[in-house]
What we know:
Layout: H1 22-63, H2 67-87
Amino acid sequence: MVPSPSDADDTASESVPAQRSDAELYRIVRLATEDAILGAVGTLLLSGVGVVLFLVGGSAFLGADGFGAMVLAAVVALGGLYLTAATLGVIPPARDWL
């Protein structure tokens, strides 16, 4: 006979959450806050670099004289656009493609 969930051992549902000291809670909250701030700053910096690359590449593309310069400027502009989109989560990053 298979025991029903009501017949199961009820000790798991009666467990008390682990008690943490104030120092442990402070450390956990501080690390989580630090991680969140660094994540936000990193996102802003990468987005800024991507926007600058896009603008520089677009400007160079419009002012390019030869075909090679236009291709290089287009690659820089598209790289900046990709970096910004991947940083903001609009498209998956390259590491997910491999």
